[in-house]
Amino acid sequence: QVQVVESGGGLGQPGGSLRLSCAASGSIFRINTMGWYRQAPAPGKQREFVALITSGGSTNYADSVKGRFTISRDIAKSTLYLQMNSLKPEDTAVYYCYADRSGTRDWGQGTQVTVSS
User: Fold this and answer.
1) Are 6 and 22 in contact (CB under 8 A)?
2) What is the full per-residue pLDDT of the chain (117 aa) written as tens digits?
């Protein structure tokens, strides 16, 4: 089993930056891909993909964050990061980290990001 715990959320200003972290523990040697989803507070809003990184270092981003967000992974620290720059109010959401291993996805509890002046 793998546990993932997010941190680093909070209040950011439009145009500013925040960095999210996701610490993995447990059977981390089985993890291949890790990534982030987010869910905005609007009623009926679905959880949407943000970014992912494979064990080989390949990355993929949603069009809405491409060029502004950067995903990275510190294998030695078993930690995933999401550097968020040029923040926009529409980035406001609960951000969820996940870890994939052999067809199983483990989710964190989420961390709130609010972008407002």
Assistant:
1) yes
2) 889 999 999 999 999 999 999 999 888 888 899 999 999 988 888 999 999 999 999 999 999 999 999 999 998 888 999 999 999 999 999 999 999 998 899 999 999 999 999
Task: Give the CA distances from residue 25 to residues 16, 22, 76, 100, in Å, rounded to whole numbers and listed in that order.
Answer: 30, 10, 12, 13
- Burial label for 45, CB within 10 Å (0-12, 13-18, 19+), is exposed
